[in-house]
Description:
The structure holds two protein chains of two kinds.
Chain A: H1 19-52, E1 55-56, E2 64-65, H2 69-76, H3 78-109, H4 116-128, H5 131-141, H6 148-157, H7 174-199, H8 203-211, H9 216-227, H10 229-244, H11 248-254, H12 268-277, H13 282-310
Antiparallel strand pairs in A: 1-2
Chain B: H1 2-37, H2 42-45, H3 60-68, H4 71-102, H5 108-119, H6 127-136, H7 143-150, H8 154-165, H9 169-177, H10 182-193, H11 195-211, H12 214-219, H13 228-238, H14 243-276
Helix pairs in contact in B: 1-14, 3-14, 4-7, 4-8, 4-11, 4-13, 5-8, 11-14, 13-14
Amino acid sequence: MQNQTVIRNHPAKKSGMSKKAKDHLVAYSFIAPNFIGFAVFTLVPMVFALILAFVKWDGANPMEYVGMNNFIRLWKDPTFHKALWNTMIYTVGVVPLTMVCALGLAILLNQKIFGRNFMRTVFFFPYVASLVAVAAVWNFIFSPTMGPVNNILHALTGVPIEELPRWAADKDWAMFTVVLFTVWKNMGYYMVIYLAGLQGVNPELYEAAELDGANAWQRFRNVTIPQLAPTTFFVLMILVINSFKVYDIFINLFAGADNQLNDSTRVLVYQIYNTAFRSLDYGYASAMAIVLFLIVLGITLVQFQGEKKYGQ
Amino acid sequence: MVGANKGIQIAAKAFAYVVLIIVVLCMLVPYLWMLSSSLKLNKDVFTFPMQWIPELPRWSNYQEIWTRIPLGTFIYNTAKLSIIVTVLQILTSSFAAYAFSKLNFTGKKTLFLGYIATIAIPWQAYMVPQFIMMRSMGLNNTHLAIILLQAFSAFGVFLMRQFYQSIPDELCEAARIDGLSEYGIWARIMLPLSKPALSTLTIFTFVSTWNDFLGPMIYLTKTELKTIQIGLRMFISQYSAEYGLIMAASVVSIIPVLVVFLALQKYFVQGVASSGIKG
């Protein structure tokens, strides 16, 4: 391939600067608006978070360096353990259910189906709909005595309403309710990612499998699943990370007028929020935040390894 | 044999339709219930069996909510924030992405890696120091705080750069030879070509700002500054038994997102698909 090099003969600009310096200046001017905002409002707080984790501070009195004390406190703090535990239970519930539903729907929608686009829109919409509004509807529908769900269950099974689960108001059923709600709300987003993955599968692979006499299940087992491995991996990571960051779903599904959560529904970010903005214990809250960061970092590193393995 | 296969195929299709229709119903019913309840008296919301279409639809619910809470103010605040954040996000992200994908400069790789690294850091992990910083700047209880913390994202730069990479460099070279400045290339060539990516970023940013809960909850404690999410939550806490009104306010809070979503959804679905996975 010759004639590829483009010869640029710009007349030398009449200025004291070299061409290279000028180019650099232009490039930096493109980056500056975003970078300055990003550096000041994101990078600086990130560094500040690291410092805060090692001090004791209520925002008014002078800061006091306490070394690893905040982390030692975390290690012994049953409230924090419970919050971490609740977050993990939630994650273990949400992740597999969402993946199965999203993949199943993506496979069904990947065929020639009448009303495909309409369905895709319907499945996706809860993901962008305002959480406060949909949480309110769920709370009404799952309302223990008045709600249609328990009334329908009562009509179908004959079990007295008093004996049916009290869903969000019931500490044994609260986690189940929030998992169900999360899957309902976010499934469509992951379905779209899976749909994209499915469109990327080479159709010749299916044809070859069919020629070899593979039935539908074998084709799914030996073509679809392996081909979707990178997508599945990506979805898994995003799901786990998002589950660990959860806060607003819990506040909107469980908190009363006081915006407080009880022992069975307190999650990690709620704990950070409360420690910082209600107890004004900024250092301790930052130590919790560092734990959240380390968890997410761990998951991200696993993802990097995985991507190497699947050779994206 | 062939006949049996045909039969299986038809059965499989039928099964697919049944499952899909059930899921569509599960997805839609809560919204229909919301809509139906928003037109009822409180005492009629929970009548069982359900009355999907109220006998006397109470449109007055939709008039009353504006007087019960400053819903107009909430919507105005949210729209203002969402639009400003989205415009800033699109401008600064596409501007920076142009340098990252089409220009050469010292430290380009390092800087970009730094950007990418921060995408993985959850905002919740540094929201506390960020708040302390904003407060010391006197930005607590200002809309500016929300704008500043949402308008400059590494994600936006990443998304736009992904798209710009697919635009051939020769196009820019040709424009340079024609004497167009770099800013001219960005404005006249890159921006018009990147409609799909811009639509995606617009929806992502608009929807996430419109629906943001934790940010406004931390920064905006004065009622006249609150956004629709926080306002609606406040209303639900205060008037927990006003079922009809709560549902009417919920419908109102969803409509703007629905409009933006339907208008741009074609690009959005493409964008979601391409932002995650590089095929």
